[in-house]
Specification:
Distance between the termini: 44 Å
Radius of gyration: 20 Å
Helix content: over 70%
Strand content: under 5%
Largest sheet: 2 strands, antiparallel
Oligomer: single chain
Number of strands: 2
Shape: globular
Number of domains: 1
Structural class: mainly alpha
Order of helices and strands: HHHHHHEHHHEHHHHHH
Length: 324
């Protein structure tokens, strides 16, 4: 059963789309390029959130799925001249098949073990890309000169935002169905869900397939935006944590939260770059994320919701109020 979408919710989605579509008229090309990266990070964060945020099965191997989609379309289009309109759907299919073969056994384990297994998958993918058929994958150097879909900051912005917006709306609507409710229940008490007669393995597999499809699609479009691909950048541990932190800082299991978190993280990292050009800025954003997470574990989404409902209170004021 799908929860009814209110007129107010529909209006908010429409206003968000109109504001974002008008943005290129008021910002520089440099800002638009930052927004493009934010759009793609939002796709990856929402994809991670639909599996890990909804079910509680925290994955550290999400670049494994992104990488399958990215490398599949890159190899097909660059090495074999397959049209992008064909290579991208094949990349999504490859992500589904390849990801399911690896992740399905992992869905039967829980907690830390699941996280470690997914991390091992990512590391395995990183090593295999470098040693197996480097004539196809480009080995450690990767590939450059890959076909791009459009050129210019504004066209790429509109393309990436359109993709991100459609994915965000689709995942948000899907999360409001019985499937989304069941996945939320798994994160709270999987044994109770299983005891009610629902097949939790099947539910987790559906969540994974949705997550993998989005990750593969995002990875495919991402590589055709960059025009290049390299294993060192794609399977970097910072990339994993940026995806996860974006989801957590925005508000996991909400879909909208990870999207907001991705924009926050992208601009934060970009504005820290002149001050901390090295990896030190990741320490700063990690510290900021930790402080925010401690203050409000449900992230930016919950803070905005509290502001909207007039429930937000500073810790000191809340304590005083309780004392009174």
């Amino acid at each position: 059963m799908t929860r009814v979408i209110t007129l107010r919710q529909a209006a908010l989605w429409l206003i968000f789309a109109l504001v974002m579509l008008a943005l290129p008229q008021f910002v520089s090309n440099g800002t638009m390029r930052i927004m493009i990266f934010a759009n793609f990070l939002a796709i990856f964060a929402m994809s991670w959130d639909f599996l890990s945020g909804k079910t509680g099965y925290v994955s550290f191997g999400h670049p494994f799925l992104v990488g399958i989609g990215a490398y599949t379309t890159a190899i097909l289009s660059y090495r074999f001249g397959v049209p992008i309109a064909v290579s991208i759907p094949l990349a999504v299919l490859a992500t589904l098949v390849g990801g399911t073969l690896f992740f399905l056994p992992a869905l039967r384990i829980k907690g830390t073990y699941f996280a470690l297994v997914t991390l091992a998958f990512m590391e395995l993918m990183y090593q295999l890309i470098q040693v197996i058929r480097p004539d196809l994958t480009g080995g450690t150097r990767g590939m450059s000169g890959i076909k791009t879909l459009v050129s210019g900051a504004a066209p790429n912005y509109y393309l990436s935002f359109g993709l991100m917006f459609v994915i965000a709306l689709a995942l948000w609507m899907l999360s409001r169905t019985r499937l989304g409710t069941s996945l939320d229940a798994i994160s709270m008490n999987e044994e109770a869900v299983s005891g009610s007669g629902l097949n939790t393995t099947r539910l987790k597999l559906v969540a994974f397939m949705v997550s993998a499809s989005v990750a593969g699609l995002g990875g495919a479009f991402y590589v055709h935006y960059l025009g290049s691909i390299a294993p060192r950048a794609l399977f970097d541990i910072n990339f994993v944590f940026t995806i996860i932190v974006s989801a957590l800082i925005g508000g996991s299991a909400t879909i909208i939260g990870p999207m907001a978190g991705a924009f926050f993280m992208t601009f934060l990292l970009e504005y820290l770059r002149p001050i901390l050009p090295g990896s030190e800025r990741y320490f700063v954003y990690g510290l900021i994320a930790l402080v925010l997470y401690v203050y409000q574990p449900k992230g930016i989404f919950a803070i905005v919701d509290d502001l909207r409902n007039g429930k937000l209170r500073l810790p000191g004021r809340a304590a005083n109020g309780d004392a009174a």
